[in-house]
Amino acid sequence: MLVNLKTILKYAAEQERAIGAFNVYNLESILAVAQASQELNQPVILSFGEGYLSHAPIEVIATIVRKICAPSDIPVVLHLDHAKEFSTVMRAIRCGFTSVMYDGSYLPLEQNIANTKKIVEIAHAVGVSVEGELGYMNNEDGSCEPGFEMEKGYTSVSAAVQYANGTGIDALAVAIGNAHGIYKGIPELDFDRLGEISAAISVPVVLHGCSGIPDAAIKKAVSLGVRKINVNTEISTGAVRAAREFLVDHTEKNTRFETMLKASRQTMFETVKNYINMLGEK
User: Fold this and answer.
1) Any idea which residues carry the catalytic annotation?
2) In the predicted structure, residue 204 carries a pLDDT above the cut 50
3) What does R_g of the chain's alpha carbons equal in angstroms?
4) What's the confidence (pLDDT) of residue 142?
5) pLDDT of 211 above 90
6) Contact (CB, 8 A) for 187 and 212
7) Domains contained in the chain, CATH given
8) CA–CA separation, 209 and 144 (whole Å)
9) What is the C-alpha to C-alpha distance for residues 189 and 196, in angstroms, rounded to an integer?
10) Which DSSP symbol is given to 230?
11) Bridge partners of residue 81, in order along the sequence
């Protein structure tokens, strides 16, 4: 069944765990996440990013998710990820997304608050949750702007309080050393800052860029109040790796595209399943 983000994060807080938000962009990725959720009988968040609009119409993704996930008794969130455009947020709400993320982290704090508050008012009126972001991370594709310094983009406690109180958001994504894409070394998260932010605000904390962060670090972040973790790169690159391995082993001329997709889907399923299990471990 489809629920909003606020509902599923309340469950996460009660269980003292985090819920995985897994990016989907086509039928195979949706099936992989849904299968893992149903096999483990655990809720999940299916995230479709604004950046994927060139790959699939958002309305089609919403229809597929509803068809596959709505009949189940397991709570599922259909979440819009990293939307900067107001029009994208409105499209998502109209076609049945139960949660939206407005990413105004690149804007001055006052403008970010004003924009987010406007979206919160519209979304909450129809039962849709809103995630906001504060603090600057690198680009969603893992690239960085010239002169990028991660520490300068860390979320401050005072700004987090001002933003959360001024917008009415349901969840706050923070920057504490996490990054999109593939890490060049071992990620070093600022757990002291995370603990201070979590204690200072009344909404759940979200951690983006969790692909590649060691399990122990993710579990510590969960113990400090993180209730939603985003995983994308590890799932996507794993699917590509599976496709490459499949093609090495299947060189015959009548190799089928749909058979290769099954191999990629199986790898995505296993990755999602591992994350769901790990996030429930104490």
Assistant:
1) 81
2) yes
3) 18
4) 44
5) no
6) yes
7) 5-237+271-279 (3.20.20.70)
8) 14
9) 13
10) E
11) 49
d(CA 226, CA 58): 28
pTM exceeding the 0.85 threshold for the entire prediction: yes
Q: Which amino acid is at 226?
A: V
SS3 letters across 79-123:
EEEEECCHHHHHHHHHCCCCEEEECCCCCCHHHHHHHHHHHHHHH
Q: DSSP readout, 128-178?
A: -EEEEEES----TTS---TT--GGGGPPPHHHHHHHHHHH--SEEEE-SS-
Residue 134 — φ and ψ, nearest 5°?
A: -140, 130
The pLDDT tens digits for 74-97 are: 999 999 999 999 999 999 999 999
Token representation of residue 73: 């008794």
User: What CA–CA distance (Å, rounded) separates 162 from 164?
Assistant: 6
Q: Would you tell me how many other CB atoms lie within 10 Å of the CB of residue 13?
A: 12
The DSSP code sequence of 21-84 is EEE--SHHHHHHHHHHHHHHT--EEEEEEGGGTTTS-HHHHHHHHHHHHTTSSS-EEEEEEEE-
